[in-house]
Structures are given as C-alpha cells and as structure tokens.
Specification:
heterotrimer; A mainly alpha (295); B alpha/beta (342); C mainly alpha (312); A: 295 residues; mainly alpha; 13 helices; 73% helix; C: 312 residues; two-stranded antiparallel ribbon; 14 helices; 2 strands
Chain lengths: 295, 342, 312
Amino acid sequence: MTAMNRIQRARGLPVRPVRSFWQLLAAPGWGRRIGIVGMLLITAAAIFAPFLTPYDPEALDLATGLQAPSAAHWFGTNQLGQDIYTRVLYGARIDLLIGTVGVSIPFVMGIVVGLVAGWFGGWVDGLIGRIVDVVVAFPFLVLVIAIVAMLGPGLVNFFIAVSLVSWVAYARIIRGETLVAKNREYVLAARALGYRDTRIMFRHLLPNAIAPAVVFAMSDFILDILAGASLGFFGLGVQPPAPEWGVMIAEGRNFVITAPWVVVFPGLAIITVGLFVSLIGDGLADWVRRVDARE
Amino acid sequence: MRASERLVLERLTVTFAKGRRPVVRDVSFEVEPGGSVGLVGESGSGKSLTLRSVLGLLPTGAAVTGHIRYGDQDLLALSGRDMQRMRGSRIGMVFQDPMSALNPILRVGVAIEQVIRSHETVDKATAHRRAVAIMERVGIRDAEARSRSYPHQFSGGMRQRIVIAMALAANPTLLLADEPTTALDVVVQAAILRLLDGLRRQQGMSLLLVSHDFGVVAGVCERVGVMYAGELVELGNTHEVLRAPRHPYTRGLVESLPQSGEGERMRSIPGMPPEPGGMPDGCPFAPRCTLATDECRTGIIPLLQVAPGRWARCLHSDLVEPPDAVIRDAAPAPTSVEMARG
Amino acid sequence: MARYVVYRLLQTIPVLFGVSVVVFLLVRLIPGNPAIAILGSRATPELVARVKDELGLDLPLWQQYLNWLGNVMRLQFGISFFYQSDVAPITFGRLPITLALLIYSTLMALFISVPLATIAALRRGGFVDQAIRLLFTATLGIPSFWLAIILALVLGVQLKLFPIAGPGNGGLDTVWHLTLPALTIALSISPILARSLRSSLIEVLGSDPITTGRAAGLRRPTLLWSYTLRNSLLPLITVLALNLGWMIGGTVIVEQVFGLPGLGSLLLTSISSRDYAIIQFVTLVFAVLVILVNLVADLSYAFLDPRVSLRR
C-alpha cells in the first residue's frame, strides 16, 4: 500500500483505488475480451507472418498476376503476382507499428503537457490552451499532409507529423482530469506531506487520471492507422513496394473492376483491426464509467 | 369540478435487482378524498419511490408488486397510453428541484398550455387564457406578461409555483408532492406550503406529500406516515404522532427536530440506517433501538393497530415514551402511559 | 448577449494569429535549402539566389514572419510557382466544389445519424440499441478512400446509379455527381456523429424537465419534439462543428478518388508539384474555415438558447 493510502486509512478516509492499466485489461466485459483476443491474434499473425505463409510478400511473379482467390492463393494475387494474403500479413506489421508509435509519442507528450497545464494553472495553462486552440483549428489530416509535404514522404516523417498534431487531445483530457484531481484528498494529503510537485503529479495523480486517456488512445490508434493508410494510398506515407494496407489499396485501384480482391482484402484488414480496437475502447470506457460511478 | 377519490396503496413492494431486499416493502395506507397525508423519512427510506410508483415514474429495472388504486382504477395495471391520460388530468405531481424541472427553451405559458392541450381539445387562445388563470391562482402576479418569460427569468420560489401550475393545469383531483420545498429557502417554503394547503381546501383536492422534514408535514398534512428502510413504521393523525409517537424511530425523529429558542444541542439518533439491499432480518431499526429485544430481530414485524386510526410496526409500541420536545399546538388528554409515569 | 458576441469574436483573433504562425512555419520545415526545394529541377545558382532574395530567406525568422504577415494583410498571399500566378484566385476558384461537398455530406450524415441515434436513445439498453451501437463500433474503422472505391464500384460501375468522376455541369447534374463522394464522407462520419447524438439524447431524456413533462401527462409527440429534440439541437450544432475537421479530411480523400476539382485535390496535386505556396495557402484556408464554422456554432448558442440571448 502506498504511503498515501496508509495515511488515508489511518484517518478513516476513503482509500483512493488506483485504476491501473492492468486492472483495465482484467475486468469483465465480453466486448473488450473479444477485442483483446482479436488484437492478440492479429499481432501474433503479424509477428509470425513468415511461418504462416510460404510466399515472399515482395517477390514478383508476373505469370500469376491478378488471380482470383483460390486454394493456392487465399486472397488472390495482385497485378505483380504477389500473394495478397501474404502481403496483408506482412502489412499488419507496418500498420500495427503505425498505430502503436502514432499513439505512443503523442500520448506521452500530451500527458506531460496536460499535467503541467492543469497542475500549475495560471499563465502556463493559458499559454498551452492557446497553442491547443491553434492546433485544433486545423483539420487533422490536412495538417498531417501539409507537414509531410514539407518534410518529404515516408514513415518517419509521418510519425513526426502525427506527433506534432495528435498530442493536443491527450493534453486536453489529462488537463481536465488534473484540474479535478488537484482538489481531491489524496493530493492534498500528499502536498501536506511535503512531497515535491513532480512526484505528486506523476506518481499519485497520474495513475488515477490516466484512464480516459487510455480509452481515447484506442480510438486514436484507429485514427492513426486510417491516416497512415490514407497517406500510403496517396503515396505520401510508406512507399511501395512495402505491403502497407493503404499502399496495397492504391496499387489495386486500377484493377478494381476486374480484380476487386486486390482492394477488398486490405480494406477488410483495416476494418477488422478497427473493429477489435473499438471493442476494446468501448469496453474500457464502460469500465471506467462504472468505476467512477461507484466512487 | 370533479370530486377527488380515495387513493389506496396496498402492500406496495418495489424491488430493483432480483434477490436484493426491496427498497419499498409492504407499504399500505390510504388517502381519503380531499384528505392530506404526509410521508416522512430519511433519504433512502423509500418515501420518494413510494410516491413515484403511484404514477409509474420509477427508474427502469423496478419490479413492483401490490396494488395501487385511485377510485376504482388499478394504477399498476394501466397501459402506457392510459397512464399518460391519468397523469396530469386526474393525478398531478410536483417535484423537488424547481431550478431544473422546467424546460429551459419553452416560455412558461407555452409549457402550461401544452399540458392543457395534451388532455383536452381546446384551441390555443383558450389554452392560453386558462394557463394565465392557473398562474394567477398559484400566486404569480402579472401572469399575462410573465407567461411569455422563460424559466430562468424566475426565482426559485416562482419556478416552483410554475411547476405547481403545470401539475394543476389539467385539474387533477389528487396532488403528489415529492419534497416540494426542500430546495427552497425557509421563507419561500412557508409560502409554497400555504399555497398547497390553500389549493387543497379550495378545490377539495387530495394531497400526498413526501418530505424528510417533519415540520413541513406537520404544517400541511392531517395524517402522517413514517417510513424507515423501505417500510411504513408508523401511521396516524399528525398531531397524535408528534405528541405521542408509538414507534421508537418516530420518537427519535421528533426529538431531533430543531426547537427554536431552546439553546440546547440538537439531538440525533445514534447509528445509521441500513444500506439499501443489505438489511438484516427482523425490524430494520433494531440495531439502533433502545427497546429492542430478541423477538425484534427475527421474522417480519407486522404493522399493528395501536389505537383507532393509529398503526405502528413495533412489538413494544406501548413502551415508547413521549418525546421531550415541546409541541406547540394544543394537546389532547394525556395517554395512559403518561399517567402511569405520573 | 452583445457582450458575449463581442467576447467570442475577440477570442478568435489570437487563434487566427497562431494559425498564421503555424502556416508560416510550415515552409521552414523543409529540410535543406527551401529555395532549392521550391525550384526543384529548375534550380540554378542564379534562380536560387533570386528566390532566396524574393522570399527573404536570409532574414531572421521573426522578420520573415512580419514580412509575410504584412503581405497577408494586404491580401497578397504569395505566388504559385507552378501556376505562375497569385495563389488566392486559384485557391478560391476551387472553394465552391469543396463547400458544396461539405454541405451535401453534412445533410446526408444528419439524415443517417439522427434517426439512428434517436431510435437507439429511445430504446436504450434494448436489442435495437445494442445492434445500432455495434454497427457504429464496426464501421468506425472503415477507411474512406477504400469506401469511396467500393461505392464507386458497386453503385457507380455495377449498378450504374451514379457517376464516379468529375463535378458535372452545374446544378442538378453536379448534385448527381457529388452524391457518391458525399455519401462516402457521410458514411465515414456517421458513426462518430450518431454516437455523440445518442449520448446527448440520453442525457436530455434523463433530465428533470422530461420527468416533469411526463408527470404532467404530456403526449408523446410533444415530449419528443418540444422537450427532447429541441433541447438536443444545440448539442447537435456543437457536435457538427467539432467534427468539421474530419469531414474536411474526408473531402481531401474523396476529391482525389472521384476527380473533383476542389481544395483537397489542389492540396494533393500541389505536393507532387512542390508548390509550397499553394500548400500553405490551402492549409490556411481550411483552418480559417474551421475557425469560422466554430465561431458561428458558438454564436448560434447565443441566439438559440434563451438563457444566453436574454442576458444583457
């Protein structure tokens, strides 16, 4: 038990339960469980892709171009004879990476900024608020495209662009939570004990404030994949011949009438990931709401 | 004007989650035509839920058994449409918080007119005239002009008057009031209570009023029922109950009423009411009761008649001493208990 | 109310200012020498020197910004190297199609979301509600560029119901041409929109005025309209304004897929032609559009909510 909770117990005050990340995963809910299982399966498929398919995602075999789905090629082949099932599997590596990194950096950035803004208030909060207002005025995709246009296409530049834009949502969420939590007993108790501000912010306040940010991170994950795939589709993100799902859809676009499978399967892959992550996000949101209501 | 009828609650029981203890258990009482009954109890005693059951305004997931009859109408058996017709036109209801009870985007006159036109086919002009008339009757001056105002332009007390106006707009013969004065300050409280009492006498309307404040009930209700932990523990004439309670909880309540000008510390009943849904066998008040014996802790304590028109759910009702508090109104002859004590 | 209006207008100024700074800084992100990047394959030492001079690229940053801002104030937004003319007329020429697309998509999205959200809210917790919510969850992850292609394939090519390219010849023909693009955007945004609507409807349905209304025996249509929907109107406006950014993102995508001459496709084609002036200006226009729409949404509160409009 933390020092905080010990003090609270001694005073007969309610002990603040910590909504830890692991608790979020373990609590009941069939939707979330399906989502978690689904994502674990997809992640495993991405990692073990070489064992799940005999084909090389980037090998050309023009003779077998544009074949419909069959026993040999479960998802068919594209115009270069590449097996689509294989490319979808290897593509999962790229797109899951896009989602993960695309969320993680803004997550950390935004949380730090939000904590600082909420905790210190005053002109710091005002200034950060203004910056947030400005970033939010730009449509997300437009600003990301504009930044990538300047920096040049590619995955790294995509991450830079997303990081510069996405952090604001997290900052807002955490700032709100901080403002509320600042006045709760456990924070006041910590300050009375003389703990340093940074310690209180990160070790006491943050674990209890972080839940809504994690819930949002789920939808952000999907949004980042969609953005990454969109940029891939336009040739501004991951470059061909990499099997990123958006790139694959762009490649198949010209053949969609005669060989729709080239476009359909990568799209379904994106939708499936979106579905599982949404289920997780919804489940988390419900859980957080229930915990809050109990308090 | 239609005559008011008798409201009968018989063994009303409301349960939420299956298997948990009912939040309203086995409540039975009547409101005579033109009568006024109050229900008193702490929060969580089930008094509000009892009231809401009459008009079917319970939260989702509520399972209701027992009977509620108004006149010869079985209220629990009504369909949605029939209940909608009953609400407002035969039974009206007033709620606690006037600040949030009114639709902020409607002018108050329009809100009242809508009630009228939901129950009768009248044209807009007639509805408007009647709405203004009702506003005047509940004490709003300049009613015609003020009918064009929005709720936020009225004070709390005025808003409550408008809520009452809406409840009365279709001329109900029974008015249910759920803590109608709790959210108002003391001066306004008195005015609203006077209004309710006056309206009742003028129209022969029945009144069922719920409050946690005995003082409020004492001012307006001829009879009172005391509720604790979902059960009706005492029922009788208000004066009698205040002067000589026959249930230990009632006694505690009366004793803890703040008496003006006494300078004594306020008394409260030691302990806390049981958690809803997690209550012991036997009398729910037993853990806090000085008169409790083993018999009190097992089984279901029935509501026993201790005098004509007086009921108490207590096995030791004759041992309940009168409260030390002074009741200002004239008291009838001393009871046998008092005489025995000398 | 006048005070609120003025206050809100004044609040916009710092944001516009900040937006201009961001747009200005965009070009400074270009790695290496911006002059070379702008000129691309046409770069020669003389041209590079001239571009540097013209754009004042050697001056300190803040001075460059002030120069740029000064130009903007004089409505000189820069020259497009590709089109060899002012960026403003080129950009504004493309605005109508994008605006038409946005309005059309919004109407369609409302047409889809409002009924679904209302049914879900009214039958909260029931099978229909759960089914609708599951539908939203499943469709959140549909990429709009993929959806555009599929819709074009099925409704355009196979069923031949709608055209799949170009803006048409104005009037009803344009409306017909914009249908598939607008449908794509509408379907992409509807899950988010409907969810928010459902939430605010549920909040309104659980509020005190509804209980008062029910207790007074108001008829269902009256309750639904005067008490529920009208109180949800303002939250709806807010939700629409908040989602404008996503809808604009959607226009960028569908304009490209369906070959519409709007702002979005201009942005994308300018990237391949390295026309940085256009990229900057289009970004600026989009941001100003978002700011304006949000301003209008906020001000509409002042007019539509009597609690705000009747205060001095």
